[in-house]
Amino acid sequence: MHRLTRPAGHERPHGRYLLALSLAALGVVYGDIGTSPLYAMHECFFGLRAVPATRENVLGILSLIFWSLIIVVTAKYHVYVIRADNHGEGGILALMALVRGAVTGRRAQSVVVVLGLFGGALLYGDGIITPAISVLGAVEGLRVATPALTRYVVPVSIAALGGLFLFQRRGTGGVGKVFGPVLLVWFVTLATLGVRGILMEPGVLQAVSPVHAVHFLTANRFTAFVVLGAVFLVATGGEALYADLGHFGERPIQLDWFTLVGPSLVLNYFGQGALLLAAPGTVRNPFYQLAPEWALYPLVALATMAAIIASQAIISGAFSLTRQAVQLGYLPRMSIIHTSAREIGQIYIPGVNWALAAATIAVVLAFRSSSGLAHAYGVAVTTTMIITTALAFVVTRKLWKWPLMASLAVTATFLLVDLTFFTANAIKIEHGGWFPLVVAAAVYTILTTWQRGRALLRSRLRESAVPLEILLGDITADPPTRVPGTAVFLTPNVGTTPAALVHNLAHNKVLHQQVLFVSVLSEEIPSVRPDERVAVQPLANGFYSVTARYGFMEEPSMPDILRGLHRRGIVVPLEATTFFLGRETLVAAGRPAMARWRERLFALLSRNALSATAFFRIPPGQVFEVGVQVEM
After folding, report:
1. Nearest-5° angle of CA 240, CA 395, CA 111?
2. Tell me: the pLDDT tens digits for 570-617?
3. By the 8 A CB rule, do 125 and 282 touch?
4. How far apart are the first and last CA of the chain?
5. DSSP state, residue 83
6. What is the pLDDT of residue 73?
7. 3-state SS class at 338
8. Which of 36, 38, 121, 301 could form a disulfide with 137 if both were Cys (CB 3.0 to 4.6 A apart)?
9. Which residues make up the CATH 1.20.1740 domain(s) of the chain?
């Protein structure tokens, strides 16, 4: 069976290195799904259209939880989807780029892009809700400890979230060292509490049989179908393990799940179920009431730390997703700050951080409880999972070369489960599920508007540009005055004359001895080999056409590009180089290719984009900007 291979030099971890990676993966990959026990069981018996905690209902819901973890998280993500890596990288945008390169035809590629972009947009909604519901669910333990502390749940949650977002600018390097050990303690605690509960009522282990799930669904029908929306909360972190694939690889992520995370979650859910069988009155918060009274305050503190770690993981994921979108051309240039000199994945994007902070605190104030937020949670994740299943089908056919019937059988099985959970969660839309959909629609609009606007802008510039052959012929026939040094002109269109060069010749009447036309292209792979980064085509009269290629997990650097030219025998001293950049001013035209409101949105995004000088790390004292008006 064919499968994708990782880049050359990527060795499968083993021994102590594997254990170290597995411990680190606990803190990044499993924070989201690891905090689901705080609220998932509670929502089944106390949420929207909850069912009474009878023996049949408890066993039925536990059976649904158990088989959801088996089918959705274990079989789908750990055995199937995790193998669909894009040169070692995972996540919806990486999968979109992989599938887009595998299909032919503009219509098929357009469908893939739409699915991938909307799936990525949905993750921003998830990135807002996950910190809010996780931290609220943890702090709500104060209500169990002392009802008098109920009024402090929201303020304490906001304070914890505020501190988390303020911390982002300092990076995750320092605190990252304790993420894994804290979650190790957390999962051991989950397992211990679960065993404590199971010992109260060992008969709860009967729920392993799917017969109880089937009986619950047939006996309760519509109510059971609605409860599936709460059951799905146990699997909401499944997408995260695929998104973080590039950081750790398959083995550490799978080792964690099969040896610690999966068993701990199952034991805790069964322990909560056993508690409900023994004491149905504990339905309001079975997680905390599973613990002895003396352990409540330490458990609240540990749960809050685990929730913050889960939130950190989703925030880092939003940063990574944004960087990929910028590099793939779906978002404008923005400030991306590296918080570690050694780890390329540790980045901080101020604009995204503060937007997430404002939105997360707003939803805490609006919903005020994990139960209220549970109504909004799940819709976005189920939609993303459906998109992932659809794109993975293309991978099995085009890249893995599976037989059609095998691909259809696997896809249909997972799609049936995904659609069932999606329909159950769709009932929540009027109760708050609309929120992540609105966020996704807004983000999707921005992504597509920027991509469409940039394509139109390149087209307009190409229409008005002087063909490079004509310019070179004119210079040969009537040479301008040449001055020492090198001029670099950034251009998005290979083979055409940058407008900045035309304006410079028209007004200054001079030309540098060495002229480089540099085009920076983004490839739909995570990274480009250093020896394949820069391609040079010598032209006449000291002109060179330079193409620099970067993957969607890399960031372009003009000094690095010039150093790459040195290895090809072209000497370009950085200190003796002048960079000419075009700054386009967009004006309305009589031939609009986008709706007026989208033109205004694109213009707004353009005005607020990070300057090319900062984005490409060009020395600011060596830059000339030339204004160009472009009709949209």
Report:
1. 85
2. 888 888 899 988 776 666 665 567 788 888 898 899 888 888 888 888
3. no
4. 49
5. G
6. 94
7. strand
8. 38
9. 16-378+426-452
Identify the bridge partners of residue 348 per DSSP, sorted by sequence position.
337
- pLDDT for the residue numbered 332: 92
Q: Residue 428: name the closest of 499, 371, 369, 509 by CA.
A: 371
CA–CA gap between residue 625 and residue 623 (Å, rounded): 6
CB 580 within 8 A of CB 485: no
For the record, the structure tokens of 555 come out as 């960031």
Query: According to CATH, what is the number of the domain 16-378+426-452?
Result: 1.20.1740
- What is the DSSP pairing of strand 543-550 with strand 510-522? parallel
Alpha helices in 465-515 (DSSP H): 468-477, 499-508
**Alpha-carbon span 314 to 377, nearest angstrom:** 14
Secondary structure (3-state) at 481 = strand
8-state DSSP, 237: T
pTM for the whole structure: 0.83
* pLDDT surpassing 80 at residue 461: no
Question: Is pLDDT above 90 for 632?
Answer: no
List pLDDT tens digits, range 529-575: 888 889 898 888 889 989 999 988 888 889 889 888 888 888 888 88
Residue 624 gets which letter from DSSP? E
Q: Which two tokens stand for residue 58?
A: 């408890």
Strand partners, 515: 487, 543
Q: Cβ(626)–Cβ(499) under 8 Å? A: yes
Average pLDDT, the chain: 85
Q: Write out pLDDT tens, residues 233-281.
A: 999 877 777 877 776 778 888 999 999 999 999 999 999 999 999 887 7
DSSP 294-308: GGHHHHHHHHHHHHH
Strand pairing class (481-490; 510-522): parallel
How many residues are listed for the chain in this entry?
632
What does the alpha-carbon distance between residue 511 and residue 500 come to, in Å, rounded to a whole number?
A: 12
DSSP helix/strand/coil, 630: strand
Residue showing tokens 């329909």: 423
**Which residues on neighbouring strands pair with residue 583, listed in sequence order?**
627
pLDDT (average), residues 210-232: 91
- For residue 479, which amino acid is it? P
**What is the pLDDT, as a whole number, of residue 588?**
62
Taking the C-alpha atoms of residue 332 and residue 375, their distance in angstroms, rounded to an integer, is: 33
Identity of the amino acid at 349: I
Long-range contacts of 468-476 (CB under 8 A, 24+ apart): 468/495, 468/496, 468/497, 468/517, 468/539, 468/545, 470/497, 471/497, 471/501, 471/502, 472/539, 472/540, 472/541, 472/543, 475/511, 475/541, 476/540, 476/541
Closest by CA to 28, choosing from 250, 179, 242, is 179
Cross-strand pairs, 630: 586
Residue found by looking up tokens 């619950």 in the block? 216
